Amino acid sequence: MLDADPLFVGAVYLEDDSGTDSAGDTFYVAFEGGSSTTTLSRVVIDGNQNGNPNQLGEPDVYFDIDSSNQNGQGNGSGGSSPFILSNKSVGITADQVRVSVVDGGTRIVLDIDDFRAGDILVFTIDVDQYFSNKPDDQVVSGIEFAGSSLTTVFQDPHYNFAPQGGPTNGTFQYQFGFGSDDAQDTGLLSMLPTKENRDSSNGLQTMENRTAGALDQYQLTPKPVSISGNVWHDRDLDLARDAGEEAIAGAQLRLQMKDANGCLLYTSPSPRD
Question: Which residue among 63, 155, 217, 257 is least packed, with the fewest CB closer than 10 Å?
Fold first, then answer.
C-alpha cells in the first residue's frame, strides 16, 4: 500500500481595514499532508451566510470587482478591486489559475493546475457586506466574514478523499487555531497567517479583528487495484504470445512487497483462472 498522510487544507481571510477600498482584501490558501501525487484542483469560497443562494441578504458578504456597477442595490460600496494573484504566492503562477467570479456575487471559484502540498496561493479581491439599509459595508472584518465557507477538491491517481470535518469543518471562523506568525507557530499549516497575524515589523501588533480562517481535513483511502493478464508457454522466449503458444491453466499470481528490513513478503495468491 502506498503511504499517505492525513490531509489538512486551510484558508485565511485578511481585511485591508484601511477604511477604504483602495486595495483588495487578501486570501491565503494552502494544504499539507496527502501523498506525493496529491494536488488541489479547485477552491471555492462562498460568502453566502443567510442560507439563500439566489438572493443577497444580511449578513452575506460578496465580491465587489466593478465600481461602475455600484447602483446601491447590493453590488458594491466604496471602491472595488478585481481578482489579483499576489506575488506572495509560493509555487503558483498566474498561468496555473482560472478564476470565476461575478460582481456582486458571493462565490469565487478557482481552478488550479499542479497545486501541491507546501505551495501557497495568495490573492486579493475586494469583499463587501450586504446591508438592507444602504450603503453596504466596504470594511468587512474577520468576525463579519466568519460564517462563509471553504470547499476544496483534490486529485490523486492512487487515492480517494474522505472528508473528516476538521476543526472548523470548512467554515470560516473568527477564532481559528492554525498558522504561524512572528510570535507563535501552531505547528499546523504554518505557511498560513495566524488569527493574530503578528509581524515584528509593526511591533507584533495583533490583527485578530481583521482575520477569519477555515480548516478542513481529509483521510486518504487507496483506490482499488486490479491486475489481469495471461500465462502461456513462451516457447521462443520473446515475451510475446505467438500463434500456437498454449495457455497454462491454474496459474497463481503472488505479489511481493518489502518490509521495514528489506525482506520480501508475499500477499495472498490470486484466484486460479
Answer: 257
How does DSSP assign 104-131, residue by residue? Answer: T-SEEEEEEEEE-TT-EEEEEE-EEE--
**DSSP secondary structure of 191-250:** TS--SS---GGGTT---GGGEEEEEEEEEEEEPP-------B--TT-SSS--TT--B-TT
pLDDT digits (tens, 9 = 90+) for 106-142: 999 999 999 999 999 999 999 999 988 877 888 899 9
Q: Which domain holds residue 255?
A: 226-273
In the block, cell 471602491 appears at 79
Instruction: Check if the beta carbon of residue 78 is closer than 8 Å to that of residue 24.
Output: no
Question: Looking at this protein, which amino acid is placed at residue 54?
Answer: N
pTM of the model: 0.83
> 144-161 pLDDT, tens per residue?
999 999 999 999 999 999
Q: Rounded CA gap, 248 and 233, in Å?
A: 7
